[in-house]
Design a protein that fits this description.
Elements lengths: L2 E2 L15 E7 L2 E8 L6 E5 L13 H6 L3 E5 L16 H16 L3 E5 L2 H12 L4 E6 L5 H4 L15 H17 L2 H9 L3 H7 L10 H11 L4 H13 L7 H7 L4 E6 L7 H10 L5 E4 L6 H4 L1 H14 L10
Helix pairs in contact: 2-3, 3-10, 5-9
């Protein structure tokens, strides 16, 4: 069981430090979160992507709160200012963290909006805990298994791998991840100009020199637990069962889903969105021009408009906001 240490109510600062910050203990882990907006408004939870934290929603939180939402940002375990343990970190664990957060801190079902890895977590939470998730927004939805998904909307499972093959795969993944010299690579990236180049690869427009963005990414990477969490996540994500992959989750999701994609995304190209639509036809997809992998941060006004317009259209499905 987790416990909420505090539940503040104030407007808070802007930029990457938006909202009022607090911590919540969940399954022995210290989880950082923040909140912005009127407590009487319906809740919306923002989930960051890989290597980031809730500060990455710096261009969105205030606009969403001003539109009539109570906006929460949660740092997933292993990222941001939350604990960085050597747990089995995959989208199933993070979905449980989101459910615990909604039950114990937010204390109500919410719309869950995720960037990249956060989008996969939002989808997972919507499937595994449907009574707590009112709608899911993924921007974008990354998962290598989408590239391998069958074109049918009801893909058939292949023959189940024999136990010895599953054990061999597990052993090889663990061995390879442990052999990776992350203790050398992560500090090198976190303390060198290579980090700025890595950040730039996620953007279509120039962001080198954006010190606030640099801090959002660099600060968690420089913490002592960053390496152990990265290694644990690499192993766990590689060994997920079929039911935790995006194609299987997309078939099971019952609540509304929106995809928002940067048209110039080089990390998760828009062709992956086509694969999502093959698995789940009819899902609304918004393509944002002049944006790479981080449309919420690169073109925040366009992102906020797409998100809020879609939520407005769900008003007949219990999404009404107080007048």
């Amino acid at each position: 069981m987790g416990s909420a240490e505090s539940q503040p109510d104030a407007s808070g600062p802007g930029g990457a430090e938006w909202g009022v910050h607090a911590h919540w203990r969940w399954q022995g882990q210290r989880c950082h979160w923040r909140v912005l907006g009127d407590p009487a408004h319906p809740p919306l939870v923002l989930l960051h992507g890989f290597a980031a934290g809730s500060g990455h929603w710096r261009g969105n939180a205030h606009a969403i709160a001003a539109a009539g939402w109570r906006v929460y940002g949660l740092d997933l375990v292993g990222f941001g200012a939350s604990s960085q343990p050597a747990l089995w970190l995959d989208n199933r664990l993070w979905a449980r963290q989101v459910q615990g957060f909604l039950e114990e801190v937010v204390q109500a079902p919410a719309v869950v909006v995720g960037h990249s890895l956060g989008g996969l977590v939002a989808l997972s939470a919507g499937v595994f805990f449907p009574t707590w998730v009112r709608a899911v927004v993924a921007s974008p939805l990354p998962d290598p298994t989408l590239v391998m998904a069958r074109p049918s909307s009801h893909p058939r499972r292949g023959p189940r791998r024999r136990p010895w093959r599953r054990r061999l795969k597990r052993w090889l993944v663990i061995l390879l991840c442990r052999l990776l010299p992350l203790e050398l690579l992560v500090p090198l990236l976190a303390h060198s100009p290579l980090l700025d180049l890595g950040i730039q690869s996620a953007y279509a427009t120039a962001v080198i020199g954006d010190r606030e963005l640099h801090r959002v990414i660099a600060k968690p990477a420089r913490r002592p637990g960053a390496v152990r969490s990265l290694r644990a996540m690499s192993i766990a994500m590689a060994l997920r069962p079929h039911g935790a992959t995006a194609p299987a989750l997309l078939q099971r999701l019952q609540c509304p889903l929106l995809l928002i994609w940067g048209r110039r995304d080089q990390l998760v190209p828009v062709q992956v969105a086509d694969q999502v639509l093959r698995v789940r036809p009819g899902v609304p997809l918004v393509l944002l021009d002049h944006s790479g992998h981080c449309p919420h941060d690169e073109v925040p006004e366009a992102f906020n408009g797409a998100l809020l317009g879609w939520l407005e259209g769900l008003g007949g499905q219990g999404m009404e906001r107080p007048a």
